[in-house]
Amino acid sequence: MCDSIRRRPGTSSALLQGIGKSLLPNVIGDTVQGLIRLGEAAPPLVREIWLLTHPELRGLPRIKVVVDWLDFVLRPPATSPRFSSESQGLDGTTG
Hints:
This protein has about 100 residues and is an all-alpha fold. The chain folds into 2 domains: about 1-40, no CATH class; about 45-95, no CATH class. It has helices at about 5, 10-15, 25-30, 60-75.
């Protein structure tokens, strides 16, 4: 059984006995034997993230590196139907 479910014995016990339903990430739910997926995979959850920088510091290389990296790892995939090509990146650009 997956560690994250093992840490919540009440929840895992109920799910494995068919008593309840739960929204689990695919990487967890797909690895637990005995759980049954109901329907298709849900679309990814979306959360808005704001990154604030002082205007005078934005041009510093160390700040730019962090902003570029966050933009790379947090930007939704272009192929996702939930996101348009007009989604705004952390640096204020679209695409």
